[in-house]
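FW: tagging you since you asked about this chain on Friday. Here's the raw sequence from the shared folder, copied in full. Didn't touch anything.
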Amino acid sequence: MKTIGLVGGTSWTSTLIYYRVLNELVQARLGGSHSARIAMWSVDFAEHLEIHERGGWKGVEEEMTGILGRLKSAGADMALLCANTLHMVYDAVEGKAGIPLLHIADATGAAIKSAGIGRIGLIGTRHTMGEDFYRVRLRDKYGIETIVPKGEDFRAIDDIIFRELVMDRYEEPARRRCLGIIDRLVAEGAQGIVLGCTELPKLVSGAKIAVPVFDTLQLHAEAAVGEALREG
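HL: got it, structure written out here
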């Protein structure tokens, strides 16, 4: 079994789920008392946000490059950036990592394509929704068109993530607002919904949504376990 490296802490609430899901998947595959081999570096999220504030994405790139180097030294055979938004710097750090870096949008795009869906609605942080790194990868590699919330809906999703979900809480109005945004994306023609923030699944858990929902954290973890247990 290969060792999976995790860049966590952005935020700790979703990193906790990554750890649980990876171990559950390995145990399901191998049985008995098997668990995943994991090396993890978890940042202080407040310090990470300060790095972004001071140095922009270049600062985040340098931060991630250093962390990936430490994970490699710790024995990781591959690595995951445990947040959709961190993939803003994927292209800049992937070649410097020294180990394979599994892109969360690749795991998601493969699942969407397998489902025969060509147009999805994407919700996440303002960076994931507003920048082109995610949408262009889905388009160019998988032929998938992406639509995102507009206006107040765009701002509301980002606010819910940073003011509530990363603090490991949410209020019922936030859940209703998020489900309403999803409904409006479906009305605009989204054939599926991508939860493009790894904290979002807990917000919509148990809700009845009219189209397939793609949990990026779950798909990312499944791809990692597949690679970790692949022979050769």
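FW: The longest strand covers residues 119-124.
HL: agreed, and Residues 45-73 form the longest helix (29 residues).
FW: great, closing this out.
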